[in-house]
């Protein structure tokens, strides 16, 4: 039985969630401070600790668009992953800021660790409790949304299958019908609970069906949404430009424009400088080890395609013996490749051979996050086989990327592997944001350096 809906998606609920998270951040900071030996029982909290907690609270609010949106149609682990990445990103920004202003020694590392981990645990527990509470409500007939699908075909079948596999979403399909039957269906429901959602599973070219549906819903307060087919989804996932006052759908255009370009450049230069300073001792040690263990230069340079297809030189630590290849041919490293030195094998497994590319970042040729650049010969080969392959060059190439943290790195010895890598690269370009970049950087730190395909 469907009971009266419990509305949990209003702006007020969002502000309550933001307030609860802020209280958790401050409460855990206070608890960690009072518990820490030497400060236990002190009523006056040092000013620098207050500033750190305040800064973390404000940074979390910057991620509010992702954290405090409706999670009805997303799985629990996605919600937990989002808040975890956002909080760890906030902690990382705080650490970097303390390092730059030379104030890190004024903050207890024990306090910072306890506060960071305690806050993360509390934020996740709050969401687990909320998620469990919503499940309890839905089992009793509350907090459901009713859906009517208009259109009977492959698209509506796909939607029905997705809803059947996502019972936790709280969405119930009342009917699937053709546009001409919708008016009769709505008339029969007079006096009953209003329909929450009407999803049009119609071709974009079916103007008659769309107009018939909209006329039937003329007096309805339901949210009306269009569910285009897969091809239309790929088209609509692009931006919109205005040229001479004419709105145009960008089917192939770089997302790095305006404020996005400025913010990404600032992110690359600030984080790139900080990381290069931190890893410079490691790079010096690797350079000396290469020089003492094999003949040849320390750095390996190779021409690759950069932003908009421009040819750029990228740097790596040399991991192979010096050898010559046939003109125009680049042989990918394979498992047990005889050209790889013993030290080079270690560098490749741990991705330490990629560290000099932070110099490329400061030169403006690469970004920290973006599609990995391929050799010119590989681009010439795969652009003829993989649709959309060259769209990877609509942004700067990166040291790490969405494809790499999802397991598609190393040798692409089959066309299928390259197709999957390109698919993830294009997903990144279509959804590019600073939040996604920070998410990829954090994921790289935890799982992106060592991989079974890196050899």
Secondary-structure element order, N to C: HHHHHEHEHEHEHEEHEEHHEHEHHH
Mean pLDDT across the residues is: 80
- Biggest sheet: strands, sense, closure? 4 strands, parallel
Structural class: alpha/beta
SS field, number of helical segments: 16
Rg, rounded, reads 27 Å
**Residue share in β-strands:** 5-15%
Taken from the alpha-carbon principal axes, the silhouette is: globular
How many domains, as an integer? 3
Low-confidence stretches: 1-9
Strands, total number: 10
What is the end-to-end distance?
58 Å
The strand line-up of the biggest sheet is 2-1-3-4
Topology:
Elements: H1 11-35, H2 47-62, H3 64-67, H4 76-100, H5 109-139, E1 145-150, H6 154-164, E2 171-177, H7 179-188, E3 197-200, H8 207-216, E4 223-226, H9 230-236, E5 240-243, E6 246-249, H10 258-293, E7 299-305, E8 311-317, H11 342-349, H12 357-363, E9 367-369, H13 376-382, E10 398-400, H14 402-405, H15 415-430, H16 434-448
Parallel strand pairs: 1-2, 1-3, 3-4, 9-10
Antiparallel strand pairs: 5-6, 7-8
Helix pairs in contact: 1-2, 1-5, 2-4, 4-5, 4-16, 7-8, 10-12
